[in-house]
Amino acid sequence: MTPGSSAPPDPAEPAQAAREALRLLIGRAETLAVAESLTGGLVAAELVAVPGASVAFRGSVTAYATELKHEILGVDSALLAERGAVDAEVARAMAEGVRDRLGADWGVSTTGVAGPDPQDGQPAGTVFVAVAGPRDTTVSPLRLPGDRGAVRRASVAAVLELLTSELRRSTVAGPESAAAPVAGRQKDKGPTAAHNGPGTSAGGQG
């Protein structure tokens, strides 16, 4: 499933994307860390299901409660108070925070509203996924159909496919470009879907 798609994902897609992402990471001698909210560990599970994942996978944080996004991942508390957990900038900060705290080259994150109820003013199926690399950060907003399980599975596929896309893009750009410091370290993809994650209360929808 590509970012912006509203079609239910093929169950094989997350596994294929996980294998490809790890192949690229291992080939570059780079590492990955994962921060999850609405997916509750499903992204990490897809990665560790791949034989040899330990070569590149540093670990994961499931920051389901909103305050843990600040306490563990370093997401700004004022940002969370103002926008809630379902927000593009929160997804960005989660990916960058887990990358830095777990000492990885790359960080990915998921946050959104799995449903069935809306959260933080966002309808069910609104999800944000982010990939923070050595040079910049990309956030993809999604609007996903289906029930709670379908939204969570589609979010896993989306973030792993975004990671694979960003790894390939940085390979084309060249290692010297990927390693160069860039002010701001951020890049947004246009709105393509919604994000889900815990709301401002400790036990959010995500």
TrEMBL record:
Q: In what residue span(s) does the CinA C-terminal domain sit? A: 17-166
State the Gene3D superfamilies in the record: CinA-like (3.90.950.20)
**Sequence segments annotated as region (Disordered):** 168-206
Q: Name one Pfam family in it.
A: CinA
InterPro entries (alphabetical): CinA-like_C, CinA_C
Coiled-coil annotation: which residues? Answer: none
- Its protein name is Nicotinamide-nucleotide amidase
Q: Which organism is it from?
A: Actinacidiphila yanglinensis
